[in-house]
Amino acid sequence: MAGRDLRALFSTNDRSVQAAEAFTNRSSQWETVAAALTEHLRHISAPGFDPEDLERPRSHVLVFHGVGGIGKTTLSRTLETALADAGRRPSQWGDPGWPADRILPVRIDLARSTGTDFEQIVLTLRAALTHTGRPLPAFDLALRRYWEANHSGEPLEEYLRRGGLGSRFGQALPQQMQSALADVAQALMLPGTIGSVVGQVTGALVSALRERRQTVRALAGCARLADLLEAEPDLEALSFYPHLLAWELARLPEGKQVVPVVLLDTFEDIGDRTRRDLERLIQRTVWLMPNAFWVITGRSRLQWADTALQGQLDYTGPAAWPGLAHTTVPAARTPAQSGAGRQVLIGDFSPEDCDEYLARRLTRDGRPLIGENIRQVIAARSHGLPLHLDLSVARFLELSRSGHVPQPDDFDHDFPALVARTLSDLTPEERHVLRSVSLLDAFDVPLATRAAGLSHEGPALRLTERPFVRDTPFGLWPFHLHGLIRSAVRNADDTADDRWTERDWQQAAQRAFTTLGEQHQAADGPGRLLLVACLRQGLRLARDHRLDLGWLTDAAWTYVSDSVWEPLAPPDTDTDTGLSTAADALVELLSTLTRRQHEHRARTASRLTAVLEAELLPADLQEMALYYRAKSLRDTGQAARSRHDYQQVADQGGRLAPAARRGLAHAARLAGDFPTALAAARHLGWEGRHQRVLGDLYWLQGQPERAAAAYLAGRTEAEQHGKAGEAAHCQALRAFAVALYAPDQAEPEIDLAHQLLAGLNLRATTLNVRRAELIRDAGSDSVHDRIAMLRTELDIAGLASLAPAIELAGAFHQAVLDDHTAWNATLTRLREQTSAEEHAYFVDIAHFMAGLPLPAGHHPPAWLDGEQATRDRWRQLVTARRIRLRSQP
């Protein structure tokens, strides 16, 4: 369904452009309304329903709330049209389950710009009911009395005409009111000359009602009519007159009965949360008309079910409004029966809805004027907010009018209007908090309060109730801003009177950064989840606002200490344009360490070199970059450069010196100097992961049982120190060692390794588990293809140091099968992948496995207890596997 978009039509001279106000989807909201209205009709038709019951909980209100520009007013207007005329209902909306002639939609816009007051609300309700063609004497008499007391000399007809009600509903209301007055005067047998004098009629009627005269038995059924007619006819009394409307509706004869569906739009404009005068009158009206159905649209959740409002409003608390309490129903759900969950947050458009909306807004010869490439950019930028789509359409026309052919880059744009709409109904303190939290990806009330520099949490708490603040109940910080609103507040030109200067933004960033550090440092225990969350936000703040590293240094060390490598949110710094601050360098360093699990290690080494050469980090973080570059160089087969970096770190004696000494022990092992590696391992201690280094030495000697025991000890130490990454790594290597000598016992070890790796981001460790699975299955048909797949993965990852280990697993498999052809091919690859500096002993072990002599001129490594003993042990492992396979059925 679409109307004419006059603003767009008057933005161009091109008469071939067709501009329409497109209405897209919202079928879930229609389903919500249909379900709730069907339940309401069933409720008021039940035998026990009494419109004069003032104590029964109310379930006749449905609230749609959402951020400004989400489409609430469009939804309200479309609901009015759909309820009034089934033929104009959007095609996506299903058929209702009620007779169309029984529903009477009445839409009232409460926007400040319309100047709607409470008198006009009441008159609108009564004027709409002229549709029944009958006077409503109880209400009409009370209203006529109020009018003459408060608008003496002003004809009601003129007021209706001036307020636009005459054109909406015709001029039947004055005639019906006059008819009601005359009928009452006649029933009271008053002289005809005074039949139109409301004061005398009222007095006589009240007396008749008090005396229970038979002549007024019809009106006597309204128990509170006399009290209302005796009350001072002021605005307060007027707010109770809707009770008379409800009574009159209930007594309409069959065939004339209607159910008003009152759509109150722009509810946020009736006041604020400290001035509720108009809201109190409206809420009283809603309560006193339980046989009408009310659909309220506004920016904020309706608070009527909050007990704290007792005294500000007449009817409050969850007992009075059970459907408005506690939870907010997502837009895609239908409220439950009996009024439960009647607060519905209107969601954003889906990307498909955004595209359809833009395609239908501007057309030429039936085809979309806005190209698909531009529509995609606008849709992505909008985060599904319809207001952004409208503003982008206006920008498209503006660019076209200026002679510029719109391009996709023209719509990577923030609109100041979004800021204005967002800030319009916030208090100054709430606006201050909003700008502060726009610096944060997520926040809670204390964090928002500290970031804003306030001493009290009230403004932050109130802000979290706004629809542009999204709630993730199970998040570490449960709140975050709507993506587009956050971008607009941060980046669009702010023209508000209380807009911030650059210094204001800088100070807010520093406050937020400091608060994050305090939360991290105050955490009990390791707090890995909090650590990563603080790092993600702190790194972005420090980089974007050029802050000193502060607490980030210690947090970075804690992050790398466990080798878990959770993703960190800040995008990589563009090293091509250079690193300019320590925060830039730290973001690049940690991003590189995280991404090395997913990119070629040569790329990792290159990025770390750029960080080192920038010399922006303090000495201990420079040491971190140097150490991990050494690891990356080792992984890519650059042994000499790797040893040089390790030696530098070891000589500096910093936090990573034990790890660097382990790297040097690994280097000695890779070179085949096993005694030197063993001597070094005995002095590494836990910090140098001595048990893992010992395990790496033992299995190479053909002693996988000793290696498995060492790896188990290393895993135990890691668990005692709370290092999940190291525990997983030791367990992966233990699974490999156990698979060598006891494949039937390897399955639980491999399963445990997978369990310990769950949630961790350790690529090399995962590949070691895959290697253990190969060894476990050596001699089976599937091993050959799996080795080929692993070769490809290692090549992509740049993990050259692991390639010989995978080939050695293949050699073990082929030796078990006595497949000399495949073994020779593997030996060729091993020779290509090894050198005098690295893994040369893998060629020796392959020969040991196959029971073959070493070639002439071969230089053996320094085995711990001699070549022959080592040869015998490896050959025994192969023989044992053959025997096991032959014994299997």
Explain what you see.
With 889 residues, this protein is mainly alpha-helical. The chain has 6 domains: 2-23 and 349-413; 26-49 and 58-108 and 259-345, no CATH class; 135-251, no CATH class; 420-491, Arc Repressor Mutant, subunit A; 689-765; 777-889, no CATH class. The protein is built from 41 helices and 12 strands. β9 (362-364) and β10 form a beta hairpin. α23 packs antiparallel against α24 (528-544), α27 runs antiparallel to α28 (619-635) and α38 packs parallel to α40. It is elongated and about 130 Å long.
Q: What's this, in brief?
A:
The protein is mainly alpha-helical. The chain contains 41 helices and twelve strands.
Q: What is the strand content?
A: 5-15%
Largest sheet: 6 strands, parallel
What's the alpha carbon Rg, rounded to whole Å? 39 Å
Please, what is the average pLDDT? 85
Q: What is the topological layout?
A:
Blueprint: E1 2-4, H1 6-9, E2 17-22, H2 27-45, E3 61-65, H3 72-84, E4 103-109, H4 118-128, H5 137-150, H6 156-162, H7 165-169, H8 172-187, H9 198-211, H10 217-220, H11 225-230, H12 235-238, H13 242-250, E5 259-265, H14 277-288, E6 293-298, E7 329-330, E8 343-345, H15 351-361, E9 362-364, E10 367-368, H16 372-382, H17 386-401, H18 416-423, H19 428-437, H20 445-452, H21 458-463, E11 469-471, E12 479-481, H22 483-491, H23 502-521, H24 528-544, H25 552-561, H26 582-595, H27 601-614, H28 619-635, H29 639-652, H30 657-670, H31 674-681, H32 690-700, H33 704-720, H34 724-741, H35 746-757, H36 763-776, H37 783-797, H38 803-817, H39 820-833, H40 841-850, H41 867-887
Parallel strand pairs: 3-6, 3-8, 4-5, 5-6, 7-8
Antiparallel strand pairs: 1-2, 2-9, 9-10, 11-12
Helix pairs in contact: 5-8, 15-16, 16-17, 19-20, 20-23, 23-24, 24-25, 24-26, 26-27, 27-28, 28-29, 28-30, 29-30, 30-31, 31-32, 32-33, 32-34, 33-34, 34-35, 34-36, 35-36, 37-38, 38-39, 38-40, 38-41, 39-40, 40-41
